[in-house]
User: Which sequence fits this backbone?
């Protein structure tokens, strides 16, 4: 490449960087920086959803599929963040100004480990801080969504909520016939007989299926025990209900999986009545909107394009490569 082409390339790069910087600075100077920096030290923002002068009820939202995916990318701040959610729960538990907690659940479930970590965090908050924890179910609170709800002092669902789906699932594709038709061969070098268990390029053997079924049954036993302990139900009752099907909120109330029917506002009213509180203040805890969140949002807006979306999809596929056992309701 001659000097003129190098010069032209350098100018193009400079103009690109200048354009991005100009757009960023323009949006920066159009922002109320004083209020932005004032918020920067606040880890969580409190949004009042019901005024009151009495006890404070904190609402924490669990929204989206429960999975611990990488957040290293500057473009990937949206959606459920497992680590951030656990820290928010812990923060609300430690907050001496909070008298009770409502977990607003709207999720089809997700990872077995992640669901169990949330469950254990709720149990720990109840034991360590002696605060009532209620669950308000949204549109969907199924499988892992029900798993995390089970230890709550009371569960309230909307009549049309989809809940239940008690069970464990693990899936993979078998593309061996398609590969044969396309003339594609897979060469596998492995250290043990079962190292490529659930490989999508060959049929699963009966022995492999038995190994995996044993794992799933063990995880299902844990799910059943969580409900037995949290809902004070017999194991036979839970197993009869836990065949993987979903229930509406109304059906779940009839079979004992939830305690009452209502929305978030009614859940707060039920908590106040149960705890003999009056004129409680209901506050939703949101993640902070300080300087880091602002910068991240601006970068996302500047780079939001089809290439960015494809990169996000590629990152998700890389993180979820391989079958996983899930407490997940999938349609």
Assistant:
């Amino acid at each position: 490449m001659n000097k003129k082409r190098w010069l032209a390339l350098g100018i193009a790069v400079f103009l690109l960087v200048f354009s991005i910087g100009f757009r960023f600075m323009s949006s920066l100077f159009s922002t109320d920086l004083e209020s932005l920096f004032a918020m920067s030290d606040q880890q969580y923002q409190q949004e009042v959803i019901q005024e009151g002068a009495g006890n404070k009820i904190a609402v924490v939202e669990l929204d989206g599929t429960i999975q611990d995916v990488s957040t290293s990318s500057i473009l990937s701040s949206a959606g459920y963040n497992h680590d951030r959610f656990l820290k928010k729960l812990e923060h609300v538990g430690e907050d001496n100004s909070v008298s009770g907690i409502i977990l607003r659940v709207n999720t089809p479930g997700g990872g077995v480990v992640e669901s169990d970590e949330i469950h254990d965090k709720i149990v720990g908050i109840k034991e360590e801080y002696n605060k009532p924890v209620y669950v308000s179910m949204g549109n969907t609170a199924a499988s892992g969504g029900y798993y995390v709800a089970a230890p709550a002092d009371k569960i309230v669902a909307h009549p049309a909520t989809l809940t239940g789906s008690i069970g464990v699932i693990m899936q993979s594709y078998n593309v061996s016939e398609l590969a044969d038709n396309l003339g594609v061969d897979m060469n596998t070098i492995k250290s043990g007989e079962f190292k490529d268990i659930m490989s999508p390029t060959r049929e699963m053997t009966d022995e492999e299926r038995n190994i995996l079924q044993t794992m799933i049954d063990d995880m299902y036993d844990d799910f059943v025990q969580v409900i037995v302990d949290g809902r004070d139900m017999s194991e036979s009752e839970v197993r009869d209900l836990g065949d993987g099907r979903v229930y509406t909120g109304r059906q779940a109330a009839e079979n004992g999986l939830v305690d009452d029917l209502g929305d978030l506002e009614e859940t707060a009213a039920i908590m106040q009545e149960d705890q003999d509180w009056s004129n409680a203040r209901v506050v939703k805890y949101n993640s902070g909107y300080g300087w880091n969140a602002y910068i991240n949002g601006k970068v996302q807006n500047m780079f939001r394009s089809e290439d960015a979306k494809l990169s996000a999809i590629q990152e998700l596929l890389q993180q979820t490569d391989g079958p996983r056992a899930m407490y997940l309701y999938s349609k």
About this structure: The first strand starts at residue 44 and ends at 50. Residues 13 and 19 are 10 Å apart (CA to CA). The chain has twelve helices and eleven strands.
